[in-house]
Write a structure and sequence with these properties.
There is one protein chain. The chain contains 8 helices and 11 strands. It is α+β, with helices and mostly antiparallel strands. Strand 2 and strand 3 form a beta hairpin. Helix 1 runs antiparallel to helix 3.
């Protein structure tokens, strides 16, 4: 579970009286040479998805999905991070993406076009970023990498670098947040005094994409038709009877 949190923008949660739940299927991610892996679907979210996302947030019981995270502060921080990513959908310049595996949401990321005066450059800024299990004790392989690959695609298309801030006190997965991004070429701008990380524009290239995402086949969707997420996705996060049987088979 890889988490990223920053301190802007501050947005307000809005209620929509006539929700349309019109997410857009943005991309399909296929994993190469990984047994028993499922495709990951990336949906671009719209403000009209806010009510659906609030339902998702209420259904998302991290205590049951990740019982190994026993620290209540980590659980609370993790849930707040997801909530902040959802709230960002109301920010006019933000793009918010939802990762889905086997019809269950498993991650969310928000990005902004952001001028960083500290480094005097425009970047794609990773604002909030979190993944979670799609069912108890089951982390979706490459869910975080798939969302990050989406930002790389947008940055390459717009000719921008990518920036972010790590949160040393935030919830952590199997690896430190900074280490996760270092594996994709990010470097701390001022390691001794700052949590800011940057991947410069000249390093966001097709060659870099092949290097950092060798097992990910990222297929951007040409069809931009809106999809009713509430009817399409399963937000109960409980394994079906068949999944329980298959889990026993694969773990025996």
């Amino acid at each position: 579970m890889n988490m990223q949190i920053t301190n802007q923008p501050i947005t307000q949660n809005k209620k929509y009286q006539n929700p349309n739940f019109q997410g857009i299927h943005y991309a399909t991610v296929k994993l190469k040479d990984i047994k028993n892996s499922s495709d990951i679907f990336i949906y671009k979210l719209e403000p009209s998805d806010q009510n659906f996302l609030q339902k998702l947030l209420k259904k998302l019981n991290l205590n049951k999905l990740a019982p190994e995270i026993k620290d209540p502060e980590q659980q609370t921080s993790w849930k707040e991070l997801i909530e902040k990513a959802i709230d960002t959908i109301n920010y006019p310049k933000a793009k918010v993406y939802l990762a889905v595996s086997e019809k269950r949401p498993c991650g969310i990321l928000s990005e902004l076009n952001y001028f960083d005066s500290g480094i005097n450059t425009n970047t794609k800024y990773i604002n909030y970023f979190a993944t979670w299990p799609d069912k108890p004790n089951h982390n979706v392989k490459c869910a975080g990498k798939s969302l990050l690959r989406t930002v790389f695609d947008n940055a390459e298309n717009d000719g921008l670098g990518i920036s972010l801030k790590t949160c040393p006190t935030g919830p952590k997965g199997n690896r430190d947040g900074g280490k996760f991004y270092e594996d994709f070429g990010f470097k701390y701008v001022a390691p001794q005094i700052s949590t800011k990380m940057l991947l410069p524009q000249n390093e966001v290239t097709p060659t870099i994409l092949e290097k950092f995402f060798p097992i990910i086949d990222f297929e951007k969707t040409l069809d931009t038709q809106s999809i009713d997420l509430e009817k399409t996705l399963d937000i109960n996060f409980t394994p079906s009877f068949l999944e329980k049987i298959l889990t026993r088979i694969f773990h025996n």
